[in-house]
Amino acid sequence: MKILLLGAGGFIGANLTERLVKDGKHQITALDIDREKLDDTIKSGGITYIDFDIRGSEEQLEKLTRDHDLIVDLVARANPSLYVSNPVDVFKLNFIENLKIADYCVKHKKRIVQFSTCEVYGITAAKANGQSSADFPQPFIEDETPLIMGPVKNHRWIYACAKQLLERVLHAYGIEQGLNYSIIRPFNFIGPRIDYLPSEQTGNPRVFSHFMNALLYGTPIKLVDGGANYRAYTYIDDAVDCIVRIIENPNGSCDRQIFNIGTPENEVTIKQLAERMIEIFNKRFRQPGDPVPEMIDVSSEEFYGVGYEDCDRRIPNVDKARTLLGWKSEHDLDSVLFLTMKYFVDKHRAKHKEPVAA
Ligand code: NAD
Ligand code: UGA
User: Fold this and answer.
1) Does any domain span residue 64?
2) Does the residue 255 lie in any domain?
3) Fewest C-beta atoms under 10 Å: which of 127, 173, 180, 347?
4) Which atom of ligand 2 is nearest to the CA of 304?
């Protein structure tokens, strides 16, 4: 199969591309505006890399779609600080530009694997009813759970809304124009090549990188609104394993299906995440002279600015991936954290010429 991976240079894209190249079953075209995370894969051969901005030439994007059998679309702004600081840009890239790709897939009758997000579920029904979701664990089910967003003034939801609208358009194209799509809702993947560390590059990445930065550079661990909200973490290799099954689509089982990919067993509050990371770092990686970060509470307004509202709890129900694809995540929370931390610690030690972790 000829596969076009859009956004192949990102965290998920780079890990997915590497795995597809290793499998050697398909012909891969990887497209992005940033190739750093793909450099080793490009050097090792086996893919065609195209430096291309999907906001650029529509003719070229259409031609690329026409020339491949399957389109995998990962392009997005996927970082909550941007939903607050640049909401229009988030909408334009994540909906308007991505819609063009869906349109070309309809026109040229190509299957599309579209990356959406677990954020489409929004807040829990418990929170919407004024209850604490700590007392009401409610796994999110792809084709059943209502999608509940906060008010428009909390513009963080523009990301989830743009992704949700794209899902709804794909569904409608499926009904009216026969589009064959599969939608993926990732639940907090982490692993090697996740975001940059903020002491090494300006910006406000996702939480793991902030906490890792604190352990390596001594910046404070900031718990937004006390770190009371929950996330369930999935190791990138487990996630990629499921994505590959969706790409391969055994017996058409993924045709016009939405899949949660996540690990319900790996749920923690953000405060617990910080505590686990400190414990693992101290036990497995700490060397004399490493900084000891303080842990402080900050308000979400101070951390992100006005317009932020958090997803309080998101537990994936993964029955569909298990039933249709025989997939289940293999890594427990400690191994997810250890493996991801090891990647950053080794990189850091190599950069600063210290011995790498055993
Ligand atoms: P990422 O930011 O690492 O990857 C996105 C990639 O898109 C980047 O390499 C970026 O350079 C590229 N890109 C951005 N604008 C582009 C443009 N105009 N033209 C071409 N390429 C462009 O994010 P990720 O974590 O790898 O996420 C991939 C997808 O999965 C996104 O759609 C995201 O919304 C979704 N997702 C990810 C997670 C997760 O756990 N990482 C969770 C939910 C949803
Ligand atoms: C992110 C993004 O929306 C998407 O990449 C994706 O849709 C989703 O993750 C996902 O990975 O599934 P979120 O989990 O909110 O959403 O992003 P993080 O920045 O990792 O934040 C997680 C939690 O940690 C939030 O409660 C946030 O307020 C908190 N946080 C963040 C801190 O307490 N401290 C920090 O330094 C950073």
Assistant:
1) no
2) yes
3) 347
4) 28
Choose among 231, 240, 206, 230: nearest CA to 329.
240
Q: Which helix (H) or strand (E) holds 21?
A: helix 11-23
Smallest Cα–Cα separation from 100: which of 169, 157, 13, 52?
169
Q: Is the whole model's pTM more than 0.85, yes or no? A: yes
Alpha-carbon distance of 312 to 301, in angstroms, equals 16
Q: How far is the CA of 89 from the centre of ligand 1 (A)?
A: 14
- pLDDT (tens digit per residue) in 213-258: 999 999 999 999 999 999 999 999 999 999 999 999 999 999 999 9
The structural domain count of the chain equals 1
* Residue among 83, 207, 271 to mutate when testing ligand 2 (max atoms within 8 A of CB): 207
CATH number of the domain residue 138 falls in: 3.40.50.720
* Domain, as residue range, for 135: 76-351
CA distance 158 to 56: 23
The pick from 4, 6, 12, 184 for probing ligand 1's pocket by mutation, whose C-beta has the most ligand atoms within 8 angstroms, reads 12
Chain position carrying tokens 């505006």: 33
Measured from the Cβ of residue 343, the count of other Cβ atoms closer than 10 Å reads: 17
- How far is 229 from 143, CA to CA, in rounded Å? 24
> What pLDDT, in 10s, does the model give residues 156-193?
999 999 999 999 999 999 999 999 999 999 999 999 99
Q: Give, in order, the Cα–Cα distances in Å from 332 to each of 157, 175, 234, 267, 327.
A: 30, 39, 8, 10, 15
Is 83 catalytic? The answer is no
Longest dimension (CA), the chain: 64
The answer to the question of residue 9 being in a domain is no
136 CA from centroid of ligand 1 (Å): 31
Q: Is residue 40 part of a domain?
A: no
DSSP per position, 235-298: EHHHHHHHHHHHHH-GGGTTTTEEEEE--GGGEEEHHHHHHHHHHHIIIII--TT-----EEEE
